[in-house]
Write a structure and sequence with these properties.
Strand order of the largest sheet: 8-7-11-10-9
Pfam families: AAA_lid_14, CBS, HTH_8, PAS_4, Sigma54_activat
Radius of gyration: 36 Å
CATH architecture of the largest domain: 3-Layer(aba) Sandwich
InterPro entries: AAA+_ATPase, AAA_lid_NorR, CBS_dom, CBS_dom_sf, Homeodomain-like_sf, HTH_Fis, P-loop_NTPase, PAS
GO molecular function, one term: ATP binding
Structural class: alpha/beta
Keywords: ATP-binding, CBS domain, Coiled coil, DNA-binding, Nucleotide-binding, Transcription, Transcription regulation
Protein name: Sigma-54-dependent Fis family transcriptional regulator
Number of strands: 22
Distance between the termini: 73 Å
CATH superfamily of the largest domain: P-loop containing nucleotide triphosphate hydrolases
C-alpha cells in the first residue's frame, strides 16, 4: 500500500526548494557557518554556470575535519572536501524511483535536476512528510531504507509504543530493536521529543537535544496523520557528538547543552546518624550518648536549647536511629496561623470549611504514622491545640476536621523549644499534663559558647561543604580571624556560625579569609582585633551602637523578636527592618 501511494507522487511534489548552495572557491570556514546559520545538513557546490560539481553533508564534513591539523586549513576551498560525482534525479521521475535509488546507493538525499539545472532536493524525511500511511504498514517497507541511512529513525504509534527502530538508532543509542520495539518509548527515553510531538501534534525541526546523558543529537520529528487522525510520529536523529569535538564553531553553538539536564538533589537521611554528628566536646558527647539510649524506645523526648543549637538535627538523628519505618515529619508551631492549626495537624475532609480542597487533605500527625512527629517551638502551640494533642497522645487516635472516622495512629513525639516550659506552666501558658507527657526524656542541647572546642570542627565542616557545593577552592583562614571566631559568643549558635562561614568564603580574597571578610557586626568583638585609631565619624558610631544594642537585646530575649522590641522600646516592624538593614543574618 505504501509503495502504491509513493508511486502517485513525482519528485517535484515532494522536494524542497530552500537549499544552501556555494561555489567551488568558497572556504571551508564560510561553508560551515552557512550550514550552521541555515540549520541544514548538506550544501551543494556549483560552478560558474550553476552546474552541480559536488555536495558536502555533515558526515562528510566530520570525515574531512579529522584530516585538518592546522587552523589555516579552514581557509581551504570547499571543493577539496566535497563529494564529487553527485547522484541526481530528474524532475520528471516518480518518488518511488527516488526511493529505490537512495536505497541502492545507500544515501539519504537526491538533488533534483531540470534541464541540467538544480531546482530542489528530495530527502527521506521529505518523503515521510508527504506520504500518509498507517504505522503498521510502514514497518517492513521502511526497514530496507532505514538500515542504509546515516540518520537514526524511530517510529511510534499514537500511544508512544515503538513500532520501528532503525539500524542507525541501535548504533547511536546502544539499544537493540528487539528490546525496544513493542514497548513505550518513555521507558527508555523519558525526555524524548517524540513524546512532545505526540502530545502537541506539531512537528519539531532541527532541535539539538539530549535524550539521555552523554548523547547529543540534532533531531527532527513530525506527527503522522491519516484522514485527519493522529496515528503516530516519526523522528530522524543525527549524531552531532563528533562535530562538537572537532569543530570550534559548532562547539560554541552547542556549549549550553551541558546545562539542560540538572539533577534534583534530595536530602539524604543517612547524614543524620550518631556516627556523623559533629562535636567531640565532653558536654555534647554526653548528650549524644543519652540520645542513643532513648532512640531505641518509643518514649517522648523534649529537646531544649537556644535557637540555632541543632535541636532538629538531634530529633532527626533520634528518628534515624530508632528504626521506625514511617517518615520524619516536622512542624514549626510558631509558623502556623492559629486558625489553621487544627486542620494542619489533623487534616480535613473535603468541603469541611470555606477554602478547603474538594478531596480533603491529610494532616501532619496522620502523615507521620509509624514514624516520628517533630513539634518544633512547642511552646508556641495554642492552648486549645495542646488539649487536642494531649488526647492524641492518650488515645492514639485522630479524627479529621469535618469527619467522623476514627483513625488509629502510631506516632512518636519529639518536641523542642527554646522557651522555659516550667515557667510557662506556672503562668498557665502551657498545660502541665501535656508538659509531663512530652517531657518523659529531657535533652538540653548546650549553646555553642559552652562548647567552643567544637568550633574548629564546625568551621572545617561548613567550609568544606559550602566550597564543594559551589565548586570553589577551600580558602585558608588567617590566624587573627580564627581568634575572633573563637572569642565570639555566638548568640545565634551553630546556625549563626554556618551563615558566618559562608559569608567568610564568599568575601575571601586571594584564597584567604581575612579580617575584612568578617560581617561588620564582628568588627571590634575579638580580643585580638582592636581598632588602631579612634573613629570620629558620627554616623559610623551610631551604626555600631545600634548593632551592639540590638545584639544585646536579642541575647537577653533569647532570640524572641517581640520581647527584644519591647526592651528596645521600638515597634517589632522597626526591629525587623534594622536586623535586615545591618545584615544580622543570625537573627532573621
Amino acid at each position: 500500500m505504501f509503495l502504491n501511494k509513493l508511486d502517485d507522487y513525482k519528485v517535484t511534489d515532494i522536494m524542497v526548494k530552500d537549499l544552501i548552495t556555494v561555489h567551488g572557491d568558497t572556504t571551508l570556514r564560510e561553508t560551515i557557518m552557512r550550514m550552521i546559520n541555515g540549520n541544514t545538513e548538506e550544501v551543494l557546490v556549483l560552478d560558474e554556470k550553476e552546474n552541480i560539481i559536488g555536495m558536502a553533508c555533515t558526515t562528510d564534513m566530520i570525515k574531512a575535519m579529522k584530516d585538518i591539523s592546522f587552523k589555516d586549513s579552514f581557509e581551504d576551498k570547499i571543493i577539496k572536501y566535497a563529494v564529487k560525482n553527485v547522484v541526481c534525479i530528474d524532475s520528471r521521475a516518480k518518488a518511488l524511483e527516488a526511493r529505490n535509488r537512495m536505497k541502492q546507493k545507500g544515501i539519504g538525499r537526491l538533488p533534483v535536476i531540470e534541464n541540467n539545472k538544480l531546482i530542489g532536493m528530495i530527502r527521506v524525511k521529505d518523503i515521510l512528510d508527504k506520504v500518509y500511511l498507517k504505522v503498521d504498514e510502514m514497518r517492513q517497507t521502511f526497514r530496507y531504507i532505514l538500515d542504509n541511512l546515516h540518520e537514526a529513525v524511530c517510529v511510534v504509534d499514537k500511544n508512544g509504543v515503538v513500532i520501528l527502530w532503525g539500524d542507525r538508532s541501535e548504533k547511536l543509542y546502544g539499544v537493540k530493536a528487539e528490546d525496544i520495539v513493542g514497548r513505550k518509548l518513555e521507558e527508555f527515553f523519558p525526555n524524548g521529543l517524540l513524546l512532545k510531538v505526540l502530545q502537541e501534534k506539531k512537528p519539531i525541526e532541527n532541535v539539538i537535544h539530549s535524550p539521555r546523558k552523554g548523547s547529543y543529537v540534532n533531531i527532527s520529528a513530525i506527527p503522522l496523520f491519516i484522514n485527519g487522525e493522529l496515528e503516530g510520529a516519526v523522528s530522524t536523529d543525527r549524531d552531532i557528538t563528533e562535530v562538537r569535538n572537532l569543530s570550534l564553531e559548532l562547539e560554541v553553538a552547542k556549549e549550553k547543552l551541558d546545562y539542560l539536564q540538572m539533577e534534583v538533589i534530595k536530602a539524604n537521611e543517612d547524614k543524620y546518624s550518631f556516627g556523623k554528628t559533629l562535636g567531640k566536646s565532653e558536654v555534647i558527647r554526653d548528650k549524644i550518648n543519652r540520645a542513643m539510649q532513648v532512640a531505641a524506645t518509643n518514649s517522648s523526648v523534649l529537646i531544649l536549647g537556644e535557637s540555632g543549637t541543632g535541636k532538629e538535627v538531634f530529633a532527626r538523628t533520634i528518628h534515624q536511629a530508632s528504626g521506625r519505618k514511617g517518615p520524619f515529619v516536622a512542624i514549626n508551631c510558631s509558623a502556623i496561623p492559629e486558625n489553621l492549626f487544627e486542620s494542619e495537624m489533623f487534616g480535613y475532609e473535603g468541603g469541611a470549611f470555606t477554602g478547603a480542597l474538594n478531596k480533603g487533605k491529610i494532616g501532619k500527625i496522620e502523615l507521620a504514622n509509624k514514624g516520628t512527629l517533630f513539634l518544633d517551638e512547642i511552646g508556641d502551640m495554642p492552648l486549645y491545640m495542646q488539649a487536642k494533642l494531649l488526647r492524641v497522645l492518650q488515645e492514639r487516635q485522630i479524627v479529621r476536621v469535618g469527619g467522623d472516622k476514627v483513625i488509629d495512629i502510631d506516632v512518636r513525639i519529639i518536641s523542642a523549644t527554646h522557651r522555659d516550659l516550667k515557667t510557662m506552666v506556672k503562668e498557665d501558658c502551657f498545660r502541665e499534663d501535656l508538659f509531663y507527657r512530652l517531657n518523659v526524656v529531657n535533652l538540653e542541647i548546650p549553646s555553642l559558647r559552652d562548647r567552643k572546642e567544637d568550633i574548629p570542627m564546625f568551621v572545617k565542616h561548613f567550609m568544606d561543604a559550602f566550597c564543594k557545593e559551589n565548586n570553589i577552592f577551600v580558602p585558608r583562614i588567617a590566624p587573627e580571624v580564627f581568634q575572633i571566631l573563637m572569642s565570639y559568643d555566638w548568640p545565634g549558635n551553630i546556625r549563626e556560625l554556618k551563615n558566618t562561614i559562608e559569608h567568610l568564603v564568599i568575601f575571601s580574597k586571594d584564597g584567604e579569609v581575612k579580617v575584612e571578610s568578617l560581617p561588620e557586626h564582628f568588627w571590634g568583638k575579638g580580643e585580638q582585633h582592636q581598632e588602631s585609631e579612634a573613629v570620629y565619624d558620627l554616623q559610623e558610631n551610631i551604626k555600631r551602637t545600634e548593632i551592639s544594642t540590638i545584639i544585646k537585646a536579642m541575647e537577653t530575649a533569647k532570640g524572641n523578636k517581640a520581647q527584644a522590641a519591647k526592651l528596645l522600646n521600638i515597634p517589632r516592624s522597626t526591629l525587623y527592618y534594622k536586623i535586615k538593614f545591618y545584615d544580622l543574618i543570625e537573627y532573621l
